User: What shape does this take?
Amino acid sequence: MASEVKVPTLGESVSEATIGQWLKQPGEAVAVDEPIVSLETDKVAIEVNAPVAGVMGQQLVKLGDTVAVGALIATIEAGNGAVAAPTSTPSSEPAPAAPTASAQPPSPAPADEASSDPAVLSPSVRRAVLEYGIDPARVKGTGKDGRLTKEDVIAAAAAKQAAPAPATSAPVPAPAPAVTTGSGRAEERVKMTRLRQTIARRLKEAQDTAALLTTFNDVDMTAVIAARDKYKDLFEKKHGVRLGFMGFFAKAACLALKDIPSVNARIEGDEIIYHKFVDISVAVSAPGGLVTPVVRDADAMSFAQIEAAIAEYGKRARDGVLTMADLKGGTFTISNGGVFGSLMSTPIINPPQSAVLGLHRIEDRPVARGGQIVIRPMMYIALSYDHRLIDGREAVTALKIIKDAIEDPTRLLIDL
Assistant: This one.
C-alpha cells in the first residue's frame, strides 16, 4: 500500500508554497526521513522528508506548481530499497535528454556526485553552470547532502581558469530548453522563484511606501584591521570562530541605535514603535536570492557570539536550511556588498524596519591626516532610512557614531 506525502505546516501565516525541486524521481529508493522534495515559500526553501522507507512513487504535482498546506503531492510505494529505473508519470516533470555522445546507458553516479545531476540542480546553480561552462558531474558539492551550490561552481570555474586547458572537455548539460529568436540568437525563459517574487514585491513596496533617503560617510579601517590582525588567531583558538569585520559593525550599530532610538524604530499605522532591544537582520546570499536571518539581542551579545551567529546563518543559507523563525523579526539591517566588490550603493530598507546600513569594499586611498597625504584602507558606508520617521540630523548622527566607533574601537568597550 502506498504512503502519502503531504505538504507539512510551513510556518506562521504561510499557507502555500511552490514545488521548487524534486530530490527523488519515481522508482528511486527512499530512506525514512530522507528529503524527497524542496518547497519554496516566500522566505525560505523547506525540504519535505519521506514519512516511510520504500520506493518513490508518483509525483502528483509538477515543478513550479503552487500547493497548499496539507495537499497530497506524492506517494511512496513499498519496496526493498533497491534503486529502480525512473518511470514517467503523467504529472511528473520530463527528464532531461541523455547525452548523445555515447550509446551506452549511464552508470550510477558515485555518492559524492549524485547531487550533480542536472535534474536536481537549483535554478541559480544551473544558470552558473551554463555561464561558466562547468560540468557539474566533475564538481564536488559542499551543500546539504553533497548538493552543488553556486559558490561551488564559481570556485570550479576559477580553478579551471588557473589550470591548463585540457585537450577535450565534456559537454555541458543544458540547464533549460533554449528558445531561438527571429534573429537566430538563443534565449532562456525561467519562471521566477517564489522567493525572488517576494523579494521583488517587498523591495517595490518599500520604495512605494517609505520616503527613502541615503546618507554616506567613509571610514578609516586602519584600527579595526590592526586589531583583527593582532587578535584573530587567539580569538579563533578561544572561541572557535573567526574574527571578522561584521562583529565590529554590529557592535557599532548597537551604539548608534541606543543613542538614536528612531533608527531602531518602525511605523505602525499612526504610531511609532520604539524597540528596547536590537535584533539585527544580516543580509546573506542564499542559492535562491538574498535573505536576512536575524541576530537577536545583538546589543547583549559578545563579539564571539555575534560572529558565531553570523557564520552559522551564512552556512545554513548556503545549504538552504534556514527556517521561518530564523528570518522573523529584525529591527535594523546590515548588508555587506563589499564581499562582492561593491564600492558604493544605496541599500533599500527591509520593511517594516526604518533603516539599513550598507557596507562596501575596503580599498587603499589617499587621505589627509595631520596635514599630510597618507594611504589608508578606506570603506564607504551608507545608511538608507525612512525620512517619514528619521530626520536627516538623526541619520547623519547615527552614521557618524558608527564611523567613530570603527575608527576607534575602544569606544565599543567603554560604550561611547
